[in-house]
Amino acid sequence: MLSGSSYFEQFNVLWFVGFSNSTIMLFFVIVIVLLLLKGITLIPKRWQSFFELAYGHFYRVIKENLSISGLKYFPFVFSLFFFLVFLNILGLCPYVFTPTTHIIVTLGFSFSIVIGVIFSGLWEFKKDFISLLMPSGAPLVLAPLLVLIETVSYVSRAISLGVRLAANLSAGHLLFAILAGFGLVFKAAILIMVFITLLEIAVAIIQAYVFCLLTIIYLADTLSLH
Q1: Helix residue spans in 11-73 (DSSP H)
Q2: pTM (2 decimals)?
């Protein structure tokens, strides 16, 4: 049976010719997504049908939440979804490193998005964008406290967005490692692992979808002030 420390070896960052396994995996997934998107044909194959279903779904979601003007963010959200999906699913393969299990990577994604939203909002609304930090109709005497609370709440978006993705994937990978250890002793655990594998594939897709859905909601601040 595997030791407790070996369960966490899958999260170790290793270096190959000056590049970490995390960096290599990120570039590898970018190449895969670009190649798949490049191979679009008039008569869709199975994988292309999945792309087209996702395309139509995100188009509708963005149009419903951000209106027509928000469709300028469609390429970004669509690409982000498949980037995260392939990172998460390929990470389920043996000996493959999963960057999204590291909170520093997911926080990098989430903070980049929130910072981008802030700069886009300032570009669009100038100083009026700061009004998001002050609830309308609130007494001026409470302004300093309310601005502080709203600022912390706004920053927590980035933290919760990144932590949610890393925590769910890390838990799934640890569960895999633990069950694999038991599988060496109890053959019945192998059947459980098959079920867990299917469950983790679903979690990998759902977490990528939730990340993109929340990103769409946050992007609304760049189009209208609430």
Answers
A1: 21-38, 46-66
A2: 0.83
